[in-house]
Amino acid sequence: MSSATVIRPAAPEDADEIADVHLAARRTAVAAGAMPAGIHPEPEVRAWLASRLAVDEVWVAEVGRRVAAYARFTPTWLDDLYVDPAAQGRGLGSALLEVVKSLRRDGFGLWVFESNLPAREFYARHGLVETERTDGSGNEERAPDIRMEWRPA
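Given the sequence above, the corresponding structure tokens read:
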């Protein structure tokens, strides 16, 4: 991570850039076979993410004054952790995950698609453990997923 990287809470004016990161990361993961295609059209995804800024805690990693990654979480769940494909491999996801851990000292859970091996390996490297597997019947994409949890030592 470079000195030009800023990790900070998201602001409402970050909504468009957060959505850009989300959509680009999902497109790349879908193309690689790591995630199923999303079922919501882009305008709906953008509106929904913007609305979550007022409800969930959202932090961003900014590189060169542009949002390059974000984490969106609740008191008990990490709902999103996405890094722009052009910024992957720079430690931004790790830095944001450390923010979540520092703010959720009692632990948290997340869901990851079974097919998303890169994400599963990333979370495992950072101390999250698998606690449940499903056939996907409970998610919108109907794709098998895995619940992982981080619990402090």
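The beta strands are 5-9, 57-63, 66-73, 78-83, 108-113, 129-134, 145-150. Try to locate this feature in the token string yourself.
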